[in-house]
Structures are given as C-alpha cells and as structure tokens.
Fold this protein.
Amino acid sequence: MPGRVLRRLIVHESRLRWPVPDALPGQVRDAEVLACERRGKYLLIRFPQGTQIVHLGMSGSLRRVPMDEPLRKHDHVEWLFDDARFLLHDPRRFGAVLWHPVQAGPLEAHPLLAGLGVEPFDPAFTPDVLHAGLRGRRQSVKQLLLSGKIVVGVGNIYASESLFLAGVDPRLPGDRLSRPRCARLHAAILTTLGQALESGGSTLRDYVNAQGAPGAYFTLHAAVYERDGQPCPRCAAPIRRIVQGQRATYFCPGCQKR
C-alpha cells in the first residue's frame, strides 16, 4: 500500500467489533498511503490526514487479491487502488477499521493504543522493565502477560510456553517474581516468540496468513500447550490444564515452581 493512492474504500459490512465510521470512505478517497505500521495487534495505515487503525480480530485477514476476484462471504472492507486491491475478511466480525484524524493529536494517545506495553523485540523491553511491570501486582503472572500492559504480543499460547521455558508457575502472583526469575522469563518470551515467527505462527484453525497458508506450525512443537495429560518433555510428569480468566493455561506442576 505505501506510495499508492487509495481510490476507494468500500465498506460492505460496517458492523464489526466497533462500527466502521460512516464518513471514513470519504475521508480517505484519493489519498496517498504514507506508511503501513503495527502497534501490538493493531495495523496502522497512515494517510496525510490521519491513520486507519485496523484489527484482524481472532481469525480475520487482510490480503491482496486480484482486481477481478469475486467477493467471498465475510469480506467486509475493500481497499481499491489503481493496480491493487485488498480485502478484510473476518468471519467472526471481531475486527475493526477505525479512524484517528491528525487533528486528534498523537496516534499513540488513542485509547486503544495508549495503554499498550512495550514491543517484545524493542531494546526498551528489558528484564528490569518486566520486573517493574510485575512489581506490586497480585494478579497471576500469566494474566499479567496476557493483558498487554507490560509487553505486547504474548498471547495465550505463547504465555503458557514462555512460563514453561522459564520454569515459572502461571498461578504465581506477579509481585512474587524475583529479578533473576524475571530475567529468565524475559529470555523465555523472546525465545518463544522468535521460534513462533520462524515456524509460521500459531492460531485458530480457520486462520490463514497472507499467502493463504494456516498459521498452525508452532503448535506442533509446543511443549505444554494443548498437551494436558501428556508427559512433560523435561520430567515426564503429566501436563495440567487449568482455566485463568476464562483462558486455558497449560503447565507442568513438576517443572514450574511457585
């Protein structure tokens, strides 16, 4: 998209997680895309007059398609350029296409972005930052990771895997983690996310990436996720499954200490 002029934004279904603003197609018509960026799970499409904030929800995709490809069911928003066409496909309609005009001030101050933690591969994410974010917090370390307020990108699968790699019980209150254990958890997060990126990601069964391939490769190599009852790869104790904040957590009671 960057460098191209958006001729039309066509909204086929505006009832997403938040309604697509009625005025948005007119606000970006014949406007040049300056850049495409990302913050957490939000895709940021920058125009001279503002920024589109796009979220793919749980199983959505934003992909480039041939100019004459027929619309499929659940194709909700269309970006039409002179020589390129993009479709937002979102069966569950948990995604979003919102607008932040330049008059509203810095994009980082938008309510959806302001509370996000640091990016995991940013040099600013250090063991000390993780320790400071957990300090004084009685909530479980697993739920604190999922909140995205300390560090973004550690979803449910990756939180279980990172905590296993670090040897930390997911039920442990955040303020119980010492600096050395935070350092191990910090390293485990980077290792887990790095391996997931290299292997193609992991997600819901009906998700596909921009090339149409499923992002389920990482789960084939998971140490604990969805392996309840199976032997731990380290100590052979049975993997346990519990529910925290309505999300499944998998861990080894033998390896992951409180």
The radius of gyration is 20 Å. The chain has a mean pLDDT of 92. The helical segments are 24-28, 111-114, 127-134, 141-147, 156-166, 179-199, 217-220. Residues 127-251 form a domain with the Helicase, Ruva Protein; domain 3 fold (CATH 1.10.8.50).
